[in-house]
Amino acid sequence: MVSEQFAVIALGGNLSFDQTPPEVTLRNAVRMLARRGLVIRDESRFFTTPCFPAGAGPDYINAAISINTNLSPVALLELLHQVEAEFGRAREQRWGMRTLDLDLICHGDSVLPDRAGHDAWRQLDPARQAELAPDQLILPHPRLQDRGFVLVPMADVAPDWRHPVLGLSVQEMLAALPAGDLAEIRLL
Predict the structure, then answer these.
(1) Which H or E run contains 122?
(2) Cα dihedral value 163, 11, 113, 127, nearest 10
């Protein structure tokens, strides 16, 4: 256990689970996380984003929650993986379709595994990002600043959170994205 920390979790999914549409699965997952002891501070609105690459599957539903937790980053990630599994998430394909995706985006001002490790993953060529998966937790999420589908809902729950490496707030990272990256993100 660690002292209580603020954290943000991004939620997403584009496949039904047990005949339940993704937006219901996301809401049910938030309730389950609360039952497991996470203090939900705020919940974003729900957004739809196109599947990538275009036409590869149904659109995604994305949201974010901010929480307070006494769990360490690794213990929190383990909890997120347990909840994903309970909602039918199978980790078979990287960046593939899924019933539920719970990504730990930030945990206070933690930079993991360390500054050099974070920098290496954040600066990794996009083609290599699709091929490689880290063998340890990287925080803040190394592609946070590039992902409108994370930043748009995160702006609802933590607009002033400042990236401990980049020094930018969520609002500033969002404003730096090209308009085309945000054009297809729609409020559900």
Answers:
(1) helix 115-122
(2) -90
Closest C-alpha to 153, from 111, 108, 112, 102: 102
Reported as a single tens digit per residue, the pLDDT across 121-131 is: 999 887 787 67
User: Which domains are delineated in the chain?
Assistant: 5-187 (3.30.70.560)
pLDDT tens-digit map of 137-174: 999 999 999 999 999 999 999 999 999 999 999 999 99
Query: Can you tell me the distance from the alpha carbon of 42 to that of 8, in angstroms, rounded to the nearest whole number?
Result: 10
* Token pair belonging to 134: 């880290």
Instruction: Tell the residue number behind the tokens 């803040």, with chain if given.
Output: 140
Query: What is the rounded CA–CA span in Å between residue 33 and residue 117?
Result: 29
* Among 45, 50, 49, 38, CA closest to 5: 38
Nearest to 63 by CA among 159, 187, 162: 187
